[in-house]
Amino acid sequence: MTSTTVPTTVEAPSLETMLGALLRADLVVLTKNRMRMLLSLMLPLIILTSTSSSKATKSFGGAEFILGLAITAGIAGTSIMGYAPMVARDRDNGVFQRLRVSPAPTWAVMGSRLSVQMVSNFVIALAVLVLGDNIHHLSLSAESYVLVLLVSILASAVFLAVAQALVGLVKSADTVQAFGRLLYIGLVIVGLFGASGGLGGFWDTVSKWTPVGVLMNVFAGVLGGGTFSSQDWLSLLACGGYVVALTTLGIYCFRFDSQ
Amino acid sequence: MILSPRPALNAIAPVPPPTATDGTTLLEVHELTVAYGPKVAVDKVSFDIRRSEIFGLLGPNGAGKTTTLSAIEGLRRPRSGTVLLNGVDIVRQPALAKAQMGVQLQSTGFQSELTVRQVARLYAGLYCVAMSGQDLDAALTDVGLGRELDRTTKQISGGQQQRLSLFVALIHHPSILLLDEPTTGLDPQSRRYLWTRIERVRNGGGSILLTTHSMEEAQAVCDRVAIVDHGRVLAIDTPRNLIDEHRDDPLVRAAARGEVTLEDVFIGLTGSEIRD
């Protein structure tokens, strides 16, 4: 940069160029966090392998429920324990304020991050689906793969809404990380034991309506030949409700600096 | 013995100011009011900045300097008042206004996973500056970051981060550069280097608005300063005129230790009690 001469005319930069720059940078950050993605696969792998016996499969509601739980756990992991702490850390470091003083609109800055996280979640879902199909010998058709991946996109939306609400409500990056871990473990345990019916009446009902529970129903409905029961439709509706409610909360409460 | 090469700081002499600004107003802040809930942090502040001018906002902690700057940068919506940059309203046309300003915040604010080169490329894209990879590397080398291109932002020193931050703020040749306490934490050499850079921006036709606590900095580089306190502008003028105008003020005289300085005027106008 040798010249500091000011140009005489200025135009607003093109949105396409700005979005391209943001997406490129966010993808670079994603590829540099490969270890985090691999760690997100650990719990789904444990779920799939520890329930591979026919007795265990039956006690957890069948292979479809287990696969649904494993995919849900993987997506929940990258969202609640990956996306949320990273956003909180970047907020503390002033990254968002630095981006917001550029001509890029705020929705583009956040939209780029969310889009890249959706890609990450999709990759996790695909990996778990392939592993689960092989471990539990489901022999899924191509149509089933497509349907499951579509539901995975819905699952991404649900858990990114949870993550965004978390980082909107909690200001400290350390607290986001700690609370995120508790939330993740709680959701997975409730989902896991709810599927097995091991929690008893009230907690079974609660489990069915948590984000993990409703997604497991939708996955099971899709994997079970595509015939949706009324419970599956209600679960689908509940997913939509979670996305809308938690996204609204996350956007309303989110502050771009931690002060 | 020099252990690491530095940009040719010794070769950078102070840059003499232009004989005069052209007087055209570049930035107009009119009756700007910014509040945090019920607390008014900036109260009907008005000032303008001319082309080819370095304008300083001086004030004690909590005076409203950073809040004023945040409103101009588009980070905080004002409760009332207007900010016009080259006639463009920052609230109504934020993208067009921001395309004409370069900003360096107090914290450098880059993602720690990105390298120096990747940060530069990101911001070149955000300001639609078409530069080849080679040209970008050359430009980064010009500012002394040639050896750090592949290092991440968390691996480089604080001074290097400041240089990268200034590079990014100037990458699109903005009409105005906004600096929030730019020399805080810098060593004397880096501080002089920064002063020289911003003087060059001024001489190239750009303007600078900076906030500072340092009276030395205000007197050394600013063409005009505004002294603010409790969200209000107390005085606007050149450092020399402020000293001459308030030389005989009893409060200024009481604060003076010998010849009246800008710092004495500042303390005389804002008080001597320590702020949080």
Give helix and strand order of chain A, one letter per element, not per position: HHHHHHHHHHHH
- Helix coverage percent of chain B: 25-40%
Structural class by helix and strand composition of chain A: mainly alpha
Which regions of chain A have little confidence, pLDDT < 50, spanning 5+ residues? Answer: none
Distance N to C terminus of chain B: 42 Å
H/I helix tally of chain A: 12
Helix/sheet category of chain B: alpha/beta
Most extensive interface, residues per chain?
A: A-B, 38 and 47 residues
Rg of chain A, alpha carbons:
20 Å
Task: Report the sheet with the most strands of chain A, covering strand number, pairing sense and barrel closure.
Answer: none
Amino- and carboxy-terminal Cα gap of chain A: 34 Å
Strand order of the largest sheet of chain B: 6-7-8-3-9-10
What multimeric state do the chains show? heterodimer
What's the alpha carbon Rg of chain B, rounded to whole Å?
Answer: 19 Å
Number of helices of chain B: 10
Shape of chain B: globular
Sketch the topology of chain B as an H/E string, one letter per element: EEEHEEHEHHHEHEHEEHHH
Walk me through this protein's architecture:
The complex is a heterodimer of chains A (259) and B (276). With 259 residues, chain A is mostly helical. Helix content of chain A is 78%, strand content 0%. Chain A has twelve helices and no strands. Chain A has helices at 15-31, 34-40, 42-50, 54-59, 63-92, 95-100, 106-135, 142-169, 173-196, 201-209, 211-223, 230-253. In chain A, helix 1 (15-31) packs across helix 7 and helix 7 packs across helix 8 (142-169). Chain A is globular, with a radius of gyration of 20 Å. Chain B is of the alpha/beta class and 276 residues long. Chain B has a domain at 103-173. In chain B, the strands form two sheets. Chain B has a six-stranded mixed β-sheet, sandwiched between helices. In chain B, helix 6 links the parallel strand 7 and strand 8. The longest helix of chain B has 16 residues, at 188-203. Chain B is globular and about 60 Å long. The A-B interface holds A 1-7, 10-14, 17-18, 20-22, 24-25, 28-29, 32-33, 90, 93-105, 256 and B 73-75, 86, 93-96, 98-101, 103, 105-114, 118, 121-128, 139, 142-143, 167, 170-171, 173-175, 200-201, 203-206.
